[in-house]
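hiii so my PI (J.) wants the whole complex modelled not just the main chain, which honestly fair. so below is everything: two entries, each one labled with what it is. i double checked the lines twice but i was tired so who knows lol
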Amino acid sequence: MTTTACFIIVSRNDIPIYEAEVGSAAKREDAAQLHQFILHAALDIVQDLAWTTSAMFLKAIDRFNDLVVSVYVTAGHTRFMLLHDSRNDDGIKSFFQEVHELYIKILLNPLYLPGSRITSSHFDTKVRALARKYL
Amino acid sequence: MIGVGKIKQYSNVLDKPLSKGKQEVSLSAFAFLFSELVQYNQTQVDNIAELERRLEDAGYAVGARVLELLCHRDKGNRRETRLLGILSFVHSTVWKVLFGKVADSLEKGTEHEDEYMISEKELLVNKFISIPKDMGTFNCGAFVAGIVRGVLDSAGFPAVVTAHFVPMEGQQRPRTTILIKFAEEVLQREARLG
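here's the output for the full assembly
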């Protein structure tokens, strides 16, 4: 089953600190840019929604054609955004929770400046492995 | 011969599970480390305000990380969206993890709407420090004020946080008060959320 999925981590100051195309569909050049555009446009909705609930997983908050945007907000207001076409809510929630743990481990590094780009290739490998497992 | 034998496999920190953390850390080790931190910064600056700012910045980095870690570990992934919620989170959960006990008191300021105070009879970082007379109002509690500011700022409640000594009658050492003054937008958002 081929799925399109684009995963972005956006910091508190609305700067993307990590992005990855994690779907199993073949990549097209223009599709990646469109995905990022859709995710950035959804940031406004996330901002309002984040203050109305104390849960971290905000489910599907926006749609574009047949693609759905799901968002997970951490305590420090770092947003994990996933653009996907599947309806697997539980799998997506588990995916977000596992990535959250990885993110906390990166954050605990005293030499990591919060809000800067995540450049660890090991982190990248693990996120893609989790995406294959849960999405 | 050096170098002969099994090569040690270094596992990446991302592969290790997030531990519960040590419940206790040696107080003397911390006091030693903190005194070195203060002394190092003293050699780098020319005035007291700069020294306080550096201690605060050191605390800010701790606060940002403590917020994420504690919300994940102790609060089962629930964020704080209200002012009183985040203040009681700082007053109990953060204090308990960092200093082993909840803070002595949490008060709302009487003169201004946006001021809150967390008081502590004897702040752990000040326990082994005495301030010489010529340093005036300098307070090493600026480190703790930085931690609180880091927590509040990362959670979306920007504030100015400072540490002050408040002399108490009948006690030899003054009480330490962390004064939190929230930014305008925090109060507006609180009013909007009702």
